[in-house]
Amino acid sequence: MTIHRLLRAFVAAGFSTYIIYLVKVDALQYYIAPRMEIFVKLSAIVLMMFAVVQAFSMFVGARGRHVDCGCDHPPSPSLWRNALTYGLLFSPLVLGYFLPDLALGSDLVDKKGIVLSRSEPGTPAIPREETPVRTPLPSSESLQDDQLLRSFQTGDLYEDQYASLAVRLMKQDPMVVREDAYLEIITAIDLFLNRFVGKSVQIEGFAYRTEEMAADEFVVARMAMDCCSADATPYGFLVQSQEASRFAEDTWIRVTGTIGTADWGGVEIVKIEAAEVAGIDSPETPYVYPNYEALDELPARD
After folding, report:
1. What is the model's pTM?
2. pLDDT at position 41
3. For residue 162, what pLDDT is reported?
4. Of 70, 84, 190, 264, whose CB count within 10 A is highest?
5. Average per-residue pLDDT for the chain
6. What are residue 275's phi and psi, to 5 degrees?
């Protein structure tokens, strides 16, 4: 029993110190969304406490004293079963310590596929009721704020929650797809795509391509995370540029251009006709996260 307590102490202490290491080198963000980090950090404390208890029990047992709380579960006498059990526990620790901490990129997109429209079939979304038919409206420049807001409202609960954000975007030139409101901004643009056609836009992300794309096309993409890396989903806009061949996959770029439309598998999607594509440094935070406060107040530009 002593050896089992020792192994349990090593496993618990190993996971605890690994979490502490990820926090110290600022790599926890590769695996966990910011809103969940506090729980992971607290788990490191709990795991270390468990390791101390197991080590104390081992020390007491080695001196011939038995700590009996009446709730002990004797381990299996099978060597192979124990080897398999502890092997499964130690394996993620070995992989975590010896493999590099990297942000998800094109390799994952190849497996999951890229989401080019927030209303694309298969994309999780709030259930939507049938949208009323819209009538042509004056240009945004000729409308006051309240009139402009009403022009975006359709009576559809899902679309209307993005209407005020769409109004604020309409007033920007160029519209900037900020990473702290990335999902909300691309959703607003996608929902009201016909209203944004011809508008100037600026967006940053990594370059991605599929075999179906033309030589002058690529996607400027970002990985979106809600809880952890297991639910990471790639989103992006299709880009058309004569400079497309200059940028390899996973190269971080800033695209400035004009919003247009394209057909992608029978779905109308956003296509940016690029005026400028420039390489940039990778961001400190590789992923983007839901930010529903952006629906009420778009963060000010830097």
Report:
1. 0.75
2. 96
3. 84
4. 190
5. 83
6. -100, -30
User: Would you say residue 50 has pLDDT above 90?
Assistant: yes
HEC assignment per residue over the chain: CHHHHHHHHHHHHHHHHHHHHHHHCCCHHHCECHHHHHHHHHHHHHHHHHHHHHHHHHHHHHCCCCCCCCCCCCCCCCHHHHHHHHHHHHHHHHHHHHCCCCCCCHHHHHHHCCECCCCCCCCCCCCCCCCCCCCCCCCHHHCCHHHHHHHHCCCCHHHHCCHHHHHHHHCCCCEEECHHHHHHHHHHHHHCHHHHCCCEEEEEEEEECCCCCCCCEEEEEEEECCCEHHHCEEEEEEEECCCHHHCCCCCEEEEEEEEEEEEECCEEEEEEEEEEEEECCCCCCCEECCCHHHHCCCCCCC
- The whole-number pLDDT of residue 146 equals 72
pLDDT of residue 127: 35
Look at domain 106-121+140-296 and name its CATH class.
mainly beta
Structure tokens at 64: 């011939």
For residue 222, count other CB atoms closer than 10 A to its CB.
23
DSSP β-bridge partners for residue 208: 219
CA 231 to chain centroid, in Å, comes to: 8
* Residues 33-59, mean pLDDT to the nearest whole number: 92
223-249 pLDDT per residue, tens: 999 998 889 999 999 999 999 989 999
Would you say residue 92 has pLDDT above 50? Answer: yes
> What is the rounded distance in angstroms from the CA atom of residue 284 to the CA atom of residue 165?
26
**In this structure, what token pair is assigned to residue 227?**
């809880």
